[in-house]
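Repro case for the chain-ordering regression, as requested:
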Amino acid sequence: MSGGTTTRVDARGGSLFAGSASVRALVYVALAALLFGFGAIAPTHLASEFVLRIGAGGLLLGMLALSVAFLMSQAGLVVLGAASVYGGVGYLFAIAMSKWDLSPTAALLFAFCTVIAYAAVLGALIVRTNPLAFMMLTLAAGEMISHSVMLEGLRDYTSGADGLVVTFKGAVFGMTAADFANATQFWPIAWSAAWILGFAAFAVRRSRFGAILRAIQENEERMRFSGFGTYLPRLAAFVFVNAIADVCGLLHVLNSGFVSPESLGLSVSTNALVAALVGGVANSTGPIAGGVLFAFAQDQFGAHGFTQLLTGLAVVVFIVLLPRGVIGGLIEGARRRSVLSSKRRRTA
Amino acid sequence: MLEIANLSVSYGRVRALDGVEIAIKGAGALHGIIGPNGAGKSTLLDVVTGRRSPSGGAVRYRGKDVTRKSVAWRRRHGMARSFQRTSIFQDLTVREQLTLIARHLGDDRLGDVIEVMNLGDCLDEKAGRIAYGVQRRVDVALALIGRPELLLMDEPGAGLSAEETLNLFLHLRDLVRDRGMAAVVVEHDVDAVFACCDVVTVLDLGRHLATGAPAEIRADARVIAAYLGSAA
Ligand SMILES: Nc1ncnc2c1ncn2[C@@H]1O[C@H](COP(=O)(O)OP(=O)(O)OP(=O)(O)O)[C@@H](O)[C@H]1O
Ligand SMILES: [Mg+2]
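-- result from build under test --
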């Protein structure tokens, strides 16, 4: 890389961003708005339906990865049961409509709230344990739920291995079941949801609550000796990430019109974890980008028939070469470069 | 202020504390605790602050039995401590950790703590990056936030030179007098303790050996036999 180029780019950047911090913030907001609008509309014109489908699936996986990544980076806890929420909310939605005759919107709310209540109860029991036990307990709870849908006694509700077709009459948030299933219409929804959830996670990270979580992660004992309760913040964080997974699962079932035991399976949970690691867990962009990357890579690998092998290889490569993930690595690289060039400017 | 009544703690077969009785009276007094390694000094602070529950006896604070209260409860009610092994937030800047705790405890006079502990120069550095001696001061500063009524310090001079320790103690004595709080300080450096503390307690092998003014303790035959004689 030539030093001249860097300096010139920097000089231009310097004059552009020379104003106060608020001007810079405005520029960032404008850029983000542009990117958001472009990303919501352009692909629906440029990409094929097939690519849109994979892309939207990637965003859904990315949002699930976001929930895993948030708890990992803010509380040092790894969730291995994300799928039980992701698939579970779909089952609840379907059952509430078909068995209890709730309207689609009411069923949606019912499913969402039930999952939140479940997360609160599970969290209350397990966030006190150590990180390893916590991980195993989320795994155990997830496996229990995924096996329970196969129970003979619940077959009336869950249809066992066959899964459930989820259709509804009328509209949810102004969209019919056919609209949700349409790749061109669903893409902007998934895109917007990814941004909203990403910003929510960003805001929580930046808040006082986020600071408390990270301080607890670093030195829980000193936090208690500073007058903080350490249990409720962790529980709140657990419920928060499950709310993300909850939204994500609802979008999934609305889009696919189908739930099956597969959506509750361990591989959904591990895919989310891998996507989080591939993208990087330290910010909101990382896991979402990781999910999209993962979805397209899986599609490519699938075409060659070695999905698992190549996925495994890619994971090893990412974790060894880019331990902060793709986005984390990019940020780190940019930071190092700006430190270098500012040093150079000072010496010049 | 603080009454420690017939306190016992066992680790398996080891009796770390054995029927210890101490009363910490007034405000504005610095109470030193000395004793050989393994005497149970840290264990005593652990029980008083709620880090460990005793196998027998009680801790009374401001006339109330607090033996079963949580660590956070005690801290919010004015009982603060520092640690023998520095316990701060390495990944946060000094300012971040001080303000986080100050806001929680509703302390709007953080400037005083920063000034008293002389941390003005390193506020924006990550605590893990600053010198060890300064980290020790951050540890004490975290305990001073919120104007505690009872401050317990476990070897604040650990890792500091004799001169630095004496300075720290003089400083602490002034602080305790100015603010009218009660302070208990565990320390190996007996010279600093005798120079600055108003009352001194000696522990040995988990038992209470003697409590009194520095001059009395220095002259106590049992203390000389158990501790000072061997240390000198
Ligand atoms: N976690 C523990 N498990 C088992 N034994 C312990 C534990 N902590 C302390 N002890 C024992 O309890 C006794 C008192 O220890 P304590 O740390 O309270 O002594 P101390 O007076 O603070 O010593 P020092 O001057 O070395 O800090 C010692 O015999 C020690 O070995
Ligand atoms: Mg000790």
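Ordering looks correct now. Chain A touches chain B through 16 residues (CB under 8 Å).
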